[in-house]
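hey m, so remember when u said the tokens were messed up on ur end? i reran from scratch. heres the input so u can diff it against urs
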Amino acid sequence: MRLRLISLYCSKTEDDNGEDEQRLLVNGVQVWGAESPGLNDRQTADLSAVPPIPFGTRARVELLDHDSPDDDDLLGRFYAGAAMLGLGELEYKFTEDDADYTLTYEVVA
């Protein structure tokens, strides 16, 4: 199975003063990171250039806001798995730490 990332929409950033510096991790490996500046409110990142990510039983997907020199802020986490295969495009909302992001993705064979 593979995880196909489609887009990341930012409704509301975690940072109060401008854009977040987003990092998207799958099974602990960064697969996408926003260039500086990152996404701001009501902006979308096209993730179609990220190659589909192979995984076994399930894939842990995490969105973080890079905060240097402090620890990164976890904006949310979910697991994609075999039960999602063939369901088409799906969405997950990352809403931790007062942020609001929507990831559109698909689990494919």
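this time it looks ok to me. The CA atoms of residues 91 and 104 lie 5 Å apart. if urs says something different then somethings off w ur setup not the seq
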